[in-house]
Amino acid sequence: MRLAELSEHSGVPTATIKYYLREGLLPPGRQINATTAEYDEEHLRRLRLVRAMIQVGRVPVAKVREVLGHVDDDSLPRTIRLGAAMWALPQVPEPENEDEYVQAAHREVAVLLDQLGWENAKRLSTISPAYRSLVVVVAALRRLGYTFGAELLLPYAELMYRTAVLDMDNLERYPSEAEQIEFAILGAILNEPALQALHRLAQEEESARRYGFE
Amino acid sequence: MRLAELSEHSGVPTATIKYYLREGLLPPGRQINATTAEYDEEHLRRLRLVRAMIQVGRVPVAKVREVLGHVDDDSLPRTIRLGAAMWALPQVPEPENEDEYVQAAHREVAVLLDQLGWENAKRLSTISPAYRSLVVVVAALRRLGYTFGAELLLPYAELMYRTAVLDMDNLERYPSEAEQIEFAILGAILNEPALQALHRLAQEEESARRYGFE
């Protein structure tokens, strides 16, 4: 398809597509002659992914380029490729210093991973931003005087594990590894807000079941 | 306790506490004489909540005042009080227009709520920002060419319902309704990032279990 059709199928204006091409977020089309290039389904898929990251996820262009670099690097093992793509996405901010609360939180999260038997997550803990985020949140709660210990986190972690199994099952519906990794990124951008919304809806439902509207 | 002790117990500088007092985010202490006021445990609890909202949740001061207004309004039924406090917190941005995708998403979410039997959430749907957020995300996915239908959302919603039951059980450990509502707000600010982090950790674990590190 031509640029105009790519724009029509994706709903992305041609000027924006040209910008993405210049920024290297979209691979160039197959040049037919000096002024015309041909694009295919893969361009359309990539364009949608870029659009989702920029418009819905508000990911900066440089980050998008970094994420796509991981998506396209098939020299890496799949777990690392998946992780690297997700890890480039926005996370909870880092704490300024390693105070006593952060240290206590580290110990708490380590106990949690042991109780869960999440050997792989433990192995990834030194490089995983998700692990880091969890430590930051647990430390923030401790600093506020709330002890959010492993025993309180455990049932949540088990439900999140079941959620992750659903995620991976959905991912595996896509035939190629590249598509799976693309869908994983979309998932991080769109499924997480969807999950959060479902969670809050469920809280409303349960609150009303327990306390009614009186 | 005096202002200095309140500062020491909370870790919040006295200048910041004075600012919160001026802004009405913290009720005034009991005046002992012209220059000294006395603060109690309730001040400390409120101060921690305000601190969490501003520093961890990055909630603007005017919003904090609005949320606290709902926390303190015991003329409202508990479900509404809980909801109103949570609903003042940041949400997924609203879509600019009610296009065909938003309309289709509305129908999809309505089907989902019917299948789940969430009668109360359905009843709250016209005023609930969580409902609105879910519609926005489903519409965004549709616009990108992904059909995220009720059948795909259903198992996620069921896991989120179990998560919400855990939330409410944890909430009910607190003796007073005011404390429960305060903890619910902290939950929205801190448990949601914690859940997100646990979810990503679980994805890493499951990805490594399925694909290893090769």
UniProtKB/TrEMBL annotation, chains A, B:
<dbReference type="InterPro" id="IPR047057">
    <property type="entry name" value="MerR_fam"/>
</dbReference>
<protein>
    <submittedName>
        <fullName>MerR family transcriptional regulator</fullName>
    </submittedName>
</protein>
<dbReference type="GO" id="GO:0003700">
    <property type="term" value="F:DNA-binding transcription factor activity"/>
</dbReference>
<dbReference type="Pfam" id="PF13411">
    <property type="entry name" value="MerR_1"/>
</dbReference>
<keyword id="KW-0238">DNA-binding</keyword>
<dbReference type="InterPro" id="IPR009061">
    <property type="entry name" value="DNA-bd_dom_put_sf"/>
</dbReference>
<feature type="domain" description="HTH merR-type">
    <location>
        <begin position="1"/>
        <end position="70"/>
    </location>
</feature>
<dbReference type="GO" id="GO:0003677">
    <property type="term" value="F:DNA binding"/>
</dbReference>
<dbReference type="InterPro" id="IPR000551">
    <property type="entry name" value="MerR-type_HTH_dom"/>
</dbReference>
